[in-house]
Amino acid sequence: FSSGPNLKTNMAETNSVTSTTTDPRSLELNKEDLVIKSLYKLSENLITFLNKPEGYDVKLEIGKAPDVEEFYAHSAILRARSTYFHNALSKEMINKTTEGDGSGSTVSYIYTALSKTFFMSTEDNVVIFKKENITPKAFKFLLTIIYGGFTKIDGLTSLEYLDLLEAYGELGIQGFDEYLQQSFLENHGEWIRDNLLLLERFSSKHEAFRDIRNFCYDQLCQNSDIVFKPSDVTTINKDKI
């Protein structure tokens, strides 16, 4: 029996293949790819429920007349993805709405406990949820984020984008703070330069928007030619000056 060059070569090749197939880094990359693909498919599946809302149990009437739009959604998804809806659509809140007076009539309530007023009633086991302080245009983007986990933000003016950020903060949707802020900073530069103080005041109201807030502070420090009005000086966060 001989262990000549050919045998040694074959053994080396075998060891090389074994090493490659058992490389932990390779397995980890494959695992990450599978997770990403799985999450992408999950996102696609959930979006179908948004586009064709079979089995919905919440009808949302969003906006203030004449700009009002209806959306149909599922309370389980809304509550899982939004801290605001987690509280607003809790059993306790819905039970208050459906207690009734024994006559079988629909009972309606106006709630103010969650910082912004909303109106809720029930009809045929569907919760009717009315909210005037969010625009339909902003809510459409946010509902897509709630269901699908991601959406491209386009077609919004700078003020409409601020409406979107305001609603995002109020509804307590998490995980997209950085993306939404960076998208705004990258695509609305001219408006930001002309309205830096307004934007600073806006971002100071929301702890989650620290990227925008820090950007404003940096710009205010670097641009000494910005003209301050007395009201502007008193509204800037003094801790950051």
UniProtKB/TrEMBL annotation:
<dbReference type="InterPro" id="IPR011333">
    <property type="entry name" value="SKP1/BTB/POZ_sf"/>
</dbReference>
<feature type="region of interest" description="Disordered">
    <location>
        <begin position="1"/>
        <end position="24"/>
    </location>
</feature>
<dbReference type="InterPro" id="IPR000210">
    <property type="entry name" value="BTB/POZ_dom"/>
</dbReference>
<protein>
    <submittedName>
        <fullName>6285_t:CDS:1</fullName>
    </submittedName>
</protein>
<dbReference type="Pfam" id="PF00651">
    <property type="entry name" value="BTB"/>
</dbReference>
<feature type="domain" description="BTB">
    <location>
        <begin position="56"/>
        <end position="155"/>
    </location>
</feature>
